[in-house]
Structure formats: C-alpha cells, structure tokens
Amino acid sequence: MNALSAPPPPIMPLQQVHAAPGASAEPAAASAESARRAAKEFEAVFVAQMLAPIFASIKSDGPFGGGPAEDTYRTMLVDEYGKAIARAGGFGIADAVEREILRLQEVTS
Fold first, then answer.
1. Rounded to an integer, what distance in angstroms lies between the CA atom of residue 30 and that of residue 32?
2. Which end of the chain is more exposed for a tag (fewer CB within 10 A), N or C?
3. pLDDT tens, 9-61?
4. Rounded to an integer, what distance in angstroms lies between the CA atom of residue 61 and that of residue 64?
5. Are 83 and 51 in contact (CB under 8 A)?
C-alpha cells in the first residue's frame, strides 16, 4: 500500500493533539510552566520573523561576504536575536499568549 492510498489518520480531540503520548493530566504548576515556555518560544519566533526583513536588506560585501552559507548563518543569527529579545522581556507578546493558552486549557478541562 502506498502513501497515496493509505487511509487518513483518525481525528483526535484537541486535548490529545497537544498532549504527549501516554501522558496523564499535568499538575497545574507544570501546566502553567509549559504554557509560559510555549508563550516565550512563540514570542521568540515572532520577533525573529519581524527582524528577518531588516537583516535581509543588509548587503555583505568584501572578501569573506556573501554566498549561500551566509544566508544560512544569518537566518540562525536572527533566530538567536529573537530568542535573546524574548528572554530579556520581549514586547509583552508572551504574556498575552500565556494568558490565552491558560484560558483555553480551562475551557477544555
């Protein structure tokens, strides 16, 4: 049987999609910590996406500038800038995302 003729996977409830396989209900403190970590990661990705066009417009000339490797490393550098900004407090996006995650967890419980 090839991948095109395989039946689609079963649809899972939302609670099971985000839970680890075989995981039981997390204690409230662990759930809050997971929500905070996810919110910080979201903010880091968001900030990196906002910084990407700024760094894409910077030209790199000279004997060691340019090439496909520089594009790869520049992307990694922008990702790290996003993480650093989020760790330093960011723009407050993580706080709003965390509140929404916790609110959605309460609704689905």
1. 5
2. N
3. 555 454 444 555 555 555 677 788 999 999 999 999 999 999 999 988 887 77
4. 7
5. no
Q: Count of domains in the chain? A: 1
At 11, list the tokens.
């649809």
* DSSP symbols for 3-65: TTTSPPPPP--HHHHHSPTT--PPPHHHHHHHHHHHHHHHHHHHHHHHHHHHHHT----STT-
Residue holding tokens 């995650």?
Answer: 101
Instruction: For the beta carbon of residue 105, count every other beta carbon within 10 angstroms.
Output: 17
Tell me if 7 is assigned to some domain. no
Residue numbers of the domain that contains 67: 27-108
Residue 77 placed within a domain: yes
